[in-house]
């Protein structure tokens, strides 16, 4: 009998299958720009390299999209989304069928996609298989179910009118996604967009184009009409900027750094006031009270800090621990961090892989040095892994103060910062004094404390006695400068719909 | 079980029904007499789509959080009601089963379902598919049997939390009574109708004639939505009658397995006789029998497509649900008059308006006391839209998002908070 999420988790109903093995990938099948369900070379002939950060080896060359390619993609997306087009004439329940079919194809190609993702990002294959692929499949299926349930309203207005709303597609949606969860971020963008009847021009990160391009092949195989999804691998300042300022794009959704998010919003305003949603950075407080289950708090805080080599917008990068349990928490966390197994991402025992590239690697080490310089106490780690390219040791700092750089700036690396606090009111203030506001966590056994603190935190997601508990059904997004708008859940639908109110005057006499 | 997993199981059931749709359509046709091609293209499609639609709702059944007065935090949960008894009819056995299973399972309930005694076969086959899909044991239980015994046992059972019934108004009243007398189980009812189909002079006449024809003759007239009172405006009345009779005389009766057959038999001899009794009352009370009016000789419970014109509101054929291939055509003059006459019934399931004028369309559709109003179409049913009756055509709605409400029990959780901010 099927158990929770068994199919999406790659488990067959009959019992535990053998541990999944990475695929042997002799050659990357899809390396070109995907427009109108066809593969294109770049108009100006440029290519870039997809690199494996675990080995430094070039995996393959990928066609590089620039402004001219983006123009072509937008043209295709516009045509595919016109009134009367196959996509717009389709029963909305059929859109849902197509999304389900796409999810089926991800399940079929699960091992291959997890392997590509692991090679391209350095994340452990097992994480890619069980977490990234699981989330991707579930997100597609979740939005498949919404397609024919997008309701407007009929409204009781004054005087003799019949009035109702329709929730129509916004039109052509540009999407610019990051390198930390390439495939998952791809589905978070296309699923609600397609569910609501839009067409898409999506730019995967230049560091991680491979799974996005494989999705192009699956999208075509699933039966989406040509031009509904177009994939333009390329760089931010060229292809990304072209999307943000394009006069033919009706909405842009961006996930990445706050600095670039601000540029996107500016470009959107300056061009055609395209609608903007942003999922940006965070400096997420993880608050551990003395009345918490301490072992649970240590485990969850560790996952929060080190998952994906710390390369998560939700990284638990400020761990506030109450006085009474501070020493014990630091001791347990340090021990746990030392047990993390770094290694070849394709090895099933590996828990910790390399950082994505040299730029990030240097930035993280720079911040680690600042921590040492500014007087934080280095409990473990604190340097690159010897002789292993882009690997950084899981690092724990204690005695961190709010004004240190490691307590203020997003590190995006495997660095856990532990700060001490006394009282509930104090920690709420300190947790909220940041321009970020993406996620937060509270560890406590007290009902009152859980309710009060979660209610007080200026954060789009608050976890109580857990961390990184993300679900397709629940909205996700940031307060303040961690973003605009929400993804996932029913809430995402409003970001991908344009509301039309139709008001019909009735004649007084018939 | 994760709610999304419930959805996955319902989707799997839909896949299995699709896999076996030729066999199921054959079984449905054998057991009910409906034409095989109709069973395949209408009943099967409706069944599969309904299951898929409700599969999609399973992990989207939202409660709300509420800003109450005082230092409290308040939220609702939409929980399963519990054990749902479901009693379904013989006119669309499989589709009615999907209409019941879909929302009930999507909301996390368990089910005891009684198919009609005339048509148990497809329900029992679905039971095997439910097991194959992977639903845990006991989630769906199927008991073929009769109304006065098994059906009544369900309606009066103290351990059943809700009963959903589709069938005649007469039995619906008994069900509601039994529910009240036993344990106040929640009740939803989808009952009969005497649905008005209003044709204005400015209607597209060909469209109106064909839609009115299908509206009353579909499924040998055995539809709760049958458009069995067709009101035609004065100036087009004669022409409408003439074209309707022409169409009815061309309607092909035959074996359900003949691909040219439009109309199969009635479900039983009892129904056949009941229909004939009403036809004879029509003749006696002075309606004009334009065509048909007889049973077909030979095998099977066939009744000829029958058309009455010059029907007046007080005749039995204008007031009672016939549930057979008998079309009543009545004359009207003005909008106000036809609205009043259309609403003058204890039923209120469906209605239709045929007109090219937007004002008539909007005014009349909003004035009709019917759970579904069709404009320039008939029997356009889709699982995304709610369906149910005003007045004695039923209580509650099936399908659409609203259909979920009938299968959830709302719990409010209110927690004391120390201090509160909006």
The number of distinct helices of chain A, counting runs of at least 4 residues, comes to 16
Helix coverage percent of chain A: 25-40%
- Identify the most extensive interface between protein chains: A-B, 35 and 39 residues
Q: Give the integer mean of the pLDDT values of chain A.
A: 95
Between the first and last Cα atoms of chain B, what is the distance in angstroms?
34 Å
Q: In a nutshell, what does this entry contain?
A:
The complex is a heterodimer of chains A (510) and B (422). Chain A has 510 residues and is an alpha/beta fold. Helix content of chain A is 38%, strand content 19%.
Structural description of this entry:
The complex is a heterodimer of chains A (510) and B (422). By secondary structure, chain A is an alpha/beta fold. Chain A has helices spanning 67-80, 86-89, 92-108, 110-121, 125-146, 182-195, 210-222, 236-244, 258-271, 294-306, 323-338, 358-373, 405-408, 424-432, 447-456, 491-495; strands at 33-35, 38-40, 47-51, 58-63, 154-155, 161-169, 172-176, 199-203, 229-231, 251-255, 275-279, 285-288, 318-322, 377-380, 395-398, 415-421, 439-443, 461-464, 483-484, 497-505. Chain A contains 16 helices and 20 strands. In chain A, the strands form five sheets. Chain A has a seven-stranded mixed sheet, sandwiched between helices. The longest helix of chain A has 22 residues, at 125-146. Chain A is globular. Chain A starts with 32 loop residues before the first strand and ends in a 5-residue tail after the last strand. By secondary structure, chain B is of the alpha/beta class. In chain B, 41% of the residues lie in helices and 18% in strands. Chain B contains 14 helices and 16 strands. In chain B, helix 4 links the parallel strand 3 and strand 4 (110-114). In chain B, helix 1 (3-19) crosses helix 5 (121-133), helix 2 crosses helix 3 (36-57) and helix 3 (36-57) runs parallel beside helix 4 (93-106). The longest helix of chain B has 22 residues, at 36-57. Chain B starts with a helix and ends in a 6-residue tail after the last strand. The interface between A and B is large, with 35 and 39 residues.
């Amino acid at each position: 009998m099927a158990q929770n999420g068994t199919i999406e988790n790659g488990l067959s109903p009959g019992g535990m299958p053998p541990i999944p093995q990475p695929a042997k990938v002799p050659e990357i099948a899809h390396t070109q720009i995907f427009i109108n369900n066809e593969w294109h070379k770049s108009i100006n002939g440029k290519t870039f390299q997809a690199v494996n950060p675990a080995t430094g080896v070039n995996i393959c060359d990928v066609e590089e999209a620039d402004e001219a390619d983006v123009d072509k993609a937008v043209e295709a997306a516009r045509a595919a989304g016109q009134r009367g087009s196959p996509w717009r004439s389709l029963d909305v329940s059929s859109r849902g069928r197509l999304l389900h079919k796409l999810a089926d194809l991800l399940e079929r190609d699960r091992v291959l996609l997890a392997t590509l993702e692991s090679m391209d990002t350095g994340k452990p294959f097992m994480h890619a298989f069980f977490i990234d692929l699981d989330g991707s499949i579930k997100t597609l299926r979740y939005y498949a179910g919404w397609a024919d349930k997008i309701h407007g309203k009929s409204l009781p207005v004054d005087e003799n009118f019949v009035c109702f709303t329709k929730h129509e597609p916004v039109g052509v949606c540009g999407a610019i996604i990051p390198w930390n969860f390439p495939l998952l971020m791809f589905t978070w963008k296309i699923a609600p967009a397609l569910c609501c009847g839009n067409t898409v021009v999506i730019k995967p990160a230049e560091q991680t184009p491979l799974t996005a391009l494989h999705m192009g092949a699956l999208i075509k195989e699933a039966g989406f009409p040509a031009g509904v999804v177009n994939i333009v691998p390329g760089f931010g300042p060229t292809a990304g900027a072209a999307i943000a300022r394009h006069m033919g794009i009706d909405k842009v959704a961006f996930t990445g750094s706050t600095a670039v998010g601000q540029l996107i919003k500016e470009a959107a305003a300056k061009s055609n006031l395209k609608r903007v949603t942003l999922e940006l950075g965070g400096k997420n407080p993880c608050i551990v009270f003395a009345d918490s289950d301490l072992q649970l708090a240590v485990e969850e805080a560790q996952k929060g800090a080190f998952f994906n080599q710390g390369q998560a917008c939700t990284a638990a990068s400020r761990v506030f621990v109450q006085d009474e349990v501070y020493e014990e928490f630091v001791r347990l966390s340090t021990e746990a961090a030392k047990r993390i197994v770094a290694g070849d991402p394709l090895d099933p025992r590996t828990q910790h892989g390399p950082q994505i590239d040299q730029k990030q690697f240097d930035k993280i080490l720079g911040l680690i040095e600042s921590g040492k310089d500014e007087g934080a106490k280095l409990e473990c780690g604190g340097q690159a892994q010897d002789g292993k390219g882009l690997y950084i040791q899981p690092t724990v700092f204690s005695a961190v103060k709010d004004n240190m750089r490691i307590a203020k700036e997003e590190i995006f690396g495997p660095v856990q910062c532990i700060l001490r606090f006394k009282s509930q009111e104090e920690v709420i203030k300190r947790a909220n004094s940041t321009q970020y506001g993406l996620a937060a966590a509270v560890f406590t056994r007290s009902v009152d404390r859980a309710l009060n603190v979660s209610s007080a935190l200026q954060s789009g997601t608050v976890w109580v006695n857990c961390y990184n508990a993300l679900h397709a059904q629940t909205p996700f997004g940031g307060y303040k400068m961690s973003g605009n708008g929400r993804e996932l859940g029913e809430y995402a639908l409003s970001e991908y719909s344009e509301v039309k109110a139709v008001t019909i005057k009735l004649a007084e006499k018939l | 079980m994760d709610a999304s997993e419930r959805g996955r199981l319902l989707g799997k059931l839909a896949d299995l029904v699709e896999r076996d749709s030729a066999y199921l359509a054959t079984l449905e046709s054998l057991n009910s007499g409906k034409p095989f091609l109709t069973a395949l293209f209408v009943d099967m499609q409706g069944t599969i789509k309904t299951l898929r639609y409700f599969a999609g709702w399973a992990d989207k059944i939202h409660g709300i959080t509420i800003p109450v007065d005082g230092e409290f935090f308040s939220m609702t949960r939409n929980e399963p009601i519990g054990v749902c008894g479901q009693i379904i009819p013989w006119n669309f056995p499989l589709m009615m089963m999907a209409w019941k299973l879909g929302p009930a399972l999507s909301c996390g309930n368990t089910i005891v379902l009684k198919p009609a005694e005339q048509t148990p076969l497809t329900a029992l086959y679905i039971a095997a598919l439910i097991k194959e899909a992977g639903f845990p044991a006991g989630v769906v239980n199927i008991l073929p049997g009769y109304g006065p015994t098994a059906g009544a046992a369900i309606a009066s059972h103290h351990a059943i939390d809700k009963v959903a019934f589709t069938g005649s108004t007469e039995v619906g009243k008994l069900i509601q009574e039994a529910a009240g007398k036993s344990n106040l189980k929640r009740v939803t009812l989808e009952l009969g109708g005497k649905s008005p189909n209003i044709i204005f002079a400015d209607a597209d006449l060909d469209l109106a004639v064909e839609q009115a024809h299908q509206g009353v003759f579909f499924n040998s007239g055995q539809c709760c939505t049958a458009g069995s009172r067709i009101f035609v405006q004065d100036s087009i009345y004669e022409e409408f009658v003439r074209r309707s009779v022409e169409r009815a005389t061309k309607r092909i009766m035959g074996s359900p397995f003949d691909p040219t057959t439009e109309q199969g038999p009635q479900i039983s001899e009892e129904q056949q006789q009941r229909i004939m009794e009403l036809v004879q009352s029509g003749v006696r009370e002075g309606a004009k029998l334009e065509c048909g009016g007889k049973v077909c000789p030979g095998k099977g419970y066939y009744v000829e497509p029958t058309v009455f014109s010059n029907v007046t509101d007080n005749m039995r054929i204008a007031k009672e649900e016939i549930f057979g291939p008998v079309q009543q055509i009545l004359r009207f003059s003005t909008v106000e008059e036809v609205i009043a006459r259309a609403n003058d019934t204890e039923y209120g399931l469906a209605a239709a308006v045929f007109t090219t004028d937007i004002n008539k369309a909007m005014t009349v559709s909003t004035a009709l006391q019917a759970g579904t109003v069709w404009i320039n179409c008939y029997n356009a049913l889709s699982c995304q839209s709610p369906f149910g009756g005003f007045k004695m055509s039923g209580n509650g709605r099936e399908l659409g998002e609203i259909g979920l409400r009938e299968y959830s029990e709302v719990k409010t959780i209110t927690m004391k908070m120390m201090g509160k901010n909006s």
